[in-house]
């Protein structure tokens, strides 16, 4: 009741305010903990543990060397004696391992004390379970030495339990929560720093792409208002016109032989030159323009004779149409198409020769290629910067949330209201 009233009317430690940098938070916390009034409690805790460790070591040695009371020795069955001695030896071994492993931290600060005490508390609970049976059995023949060792273990256990309780009462065990949050914040800050570095590089790359794109646009504009470009444009238009005429002329060839298709297929079966007929059936345009001697005219003349002799099975209309086409070919229609193609291709070659001499074409093509490259890079980098900014925003949000949690914990545990600058 007294303790409750004392706690009820006890004044809380006043809250102080401090400004710190996020990057210096870990160092600030370590410095703050090093100045804690609880440090004396930590020193006392470790000193008492060391004293009890020495006492326990001595008492375990006494237990290991203890002899059975001579007055009782003859009264105890050999089997019982062996069992008890075996338990005594097992108890001694387990306690010795515990003592050997009980190493104290070099830095006896709050952080190390919390870790040490928590681990020791678990180890003591585990040791109590493992030695319970051996301890009880050993009491039958070695009561005093095992009780002395057990009492010292009890003192170590009590010291640790009390220390853990003090940590809990003062909220100091939650210092590890602050440290974990600081570690997370530092990791978020490292991620953010790496991302900001990459973002700066991306922005530099973006600026280069913008400048490169602008330069190429200006270069293309200058090229397009030059006299050479005007000439290039005119030649290109003429080239397209000639190519259109070539296509049209070759289309007439294709149409002519297409209309003769049925007659030629019939004639292929009886002619002595079926391969030539087959070529004109499969690709009349290609076959015609690789036939400079126009052997096809002889073929058509022989086809006409076969038609007149009714050697081919065609109706009167088909026969009439075929003979008209053959007559047209004899009058020079195909020769005109062939010569026209030669003339058009000669004009095309002359234009190509002139186009090759105009350097503005190559310069424009190169500038347009580079413009397309800069435009593509610009789009890619803009997308990357957008993605990076989203990630950065996410990191900043997580960092802000962690900072708020740290501020709250520091205020509750260390009674300090911190402000990040």
Biggest pleated sheet: 2 strands, parallel
Which whole number gives the mean pLDDT?
Answer: 88
Number of structural units classed as domains: 2
Shape: elongated
Rg over alpha carbons: 52 Å
Instruction: Provide the succession of SSEs.
Output: HEHHHHHHHHHHHHHHHE
N/C terminus separation: 46 Å
DSSP summary: helix tally: 16
Structure description:
- With 421 residues, the protein is an all-alpha fold.
- It folds into two domains: 20-190 and 405-420, no CATH class; 225-357.
- It is 82% helix and 2% strand.
- It has 16 helices and two strands.
- A two-stranded parallel ribbon has the order 1-2.
- Helix 3 packs antiparallel against helix 5.
- The protein starts with a helix and ends with a strand.
- 18% of the residues are buried.
- The model is unreliable at 4-10 (pLDDT under 50).
List the SSEs and their pairings.
Blueprint: H1 2-9, E1 16-20, H2 25-34, H3 39-65, H4 70-73, H5 78-101, H6 110-138, H7 143-169, H8 175-224, H9 227-259, H10 261-268, H11 274-282, H12 284-289, H13 295-308, H14 316-330, H15 333-357, H16 359-414, E2 416-420
Parallel strand pairs: 1-2
């Amino acid at each position: 009741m007294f303790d409750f009233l004392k706690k009820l009317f006890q004044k809380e430690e006043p809250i102080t305010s401090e400004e710190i940098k996020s990057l210096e938070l870990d160092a600030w916390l370590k410095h703050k903990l090093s100045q804690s009034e609880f440090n004396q409690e930590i020193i006392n805790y470790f000193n008492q543990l060391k004293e009890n460790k020495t006492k326990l070591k001595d008492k375990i040695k006494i237990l290991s060397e203890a002899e059975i009371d001579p007055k009782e020795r003859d009264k105890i069955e050999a089997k019982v004696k062996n069992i008890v001695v075996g338990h005594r030896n097992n108890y001694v071994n387990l306690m010795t391992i515990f003592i050997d492993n009980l190493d104290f931290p070099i830095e006896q600060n709050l952080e190390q004390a919390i870790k040490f005490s928590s681990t020791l508390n678990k180890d003591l609970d585990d040791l109590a379970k493992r030695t319970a049976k051996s301890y009880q059995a050993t009491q039958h023949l070695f009561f005093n030495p095992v009780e002395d060792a057990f009492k010292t273990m009890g003192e170590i256990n009590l010291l640790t339990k009390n220390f853990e309780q003090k940590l809990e009462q003062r909220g100091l065990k939650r210092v590890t929560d602050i440290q974990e949050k600081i570690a997370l914040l530092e990791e978020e800050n490292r991620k953010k720093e790496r991302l900001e570095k990459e973002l700066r590089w991306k922005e530099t790359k973006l600026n280069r792409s913008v400048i490169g794109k602008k330069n190429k646009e200006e270069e293309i504009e200058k090229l397009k208002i030059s006299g050479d470009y005007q000439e290039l444009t005119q030649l290109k238009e003429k080239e397209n016109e000639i190519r259109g005429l070539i296509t049209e002329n070759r289309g007439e060839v294709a149409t002519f032989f297409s209309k003769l298709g049925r007659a030629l297929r019939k004639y292929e079966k009886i002619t002595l030159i079926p391969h030539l007929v087959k070529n004109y059936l499969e690709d009349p345009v290609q076959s015609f323009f690789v036939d400079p001697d126009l052997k096809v005219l002889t073929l058509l003349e022989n086809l006409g004779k076969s038609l007149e002799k009714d050697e081919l099975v065609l109706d009167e209309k088909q026969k009439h149409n075929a003979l008209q086409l053959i007559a047209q070919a004899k009058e020079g229609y195909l020769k005109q198409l062939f010569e026209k193609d030669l003339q058009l291709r000669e004009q095309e070659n002359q234009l190509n020769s002139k186009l090759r001499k105009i350097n503005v074409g190559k310069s424009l093509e190169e500038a347009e290629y580079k413009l397309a490259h800069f435009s593509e890079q610009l789009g890619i980098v803009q997308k990357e910067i957008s993605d990076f900014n989203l990630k950065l925003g996410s990191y900043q949000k997580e960092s802000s949330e962690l900072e708020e949690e740290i501020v709250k914990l520091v205020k509750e545990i260390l009674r300090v209201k911190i402000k990040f600058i």
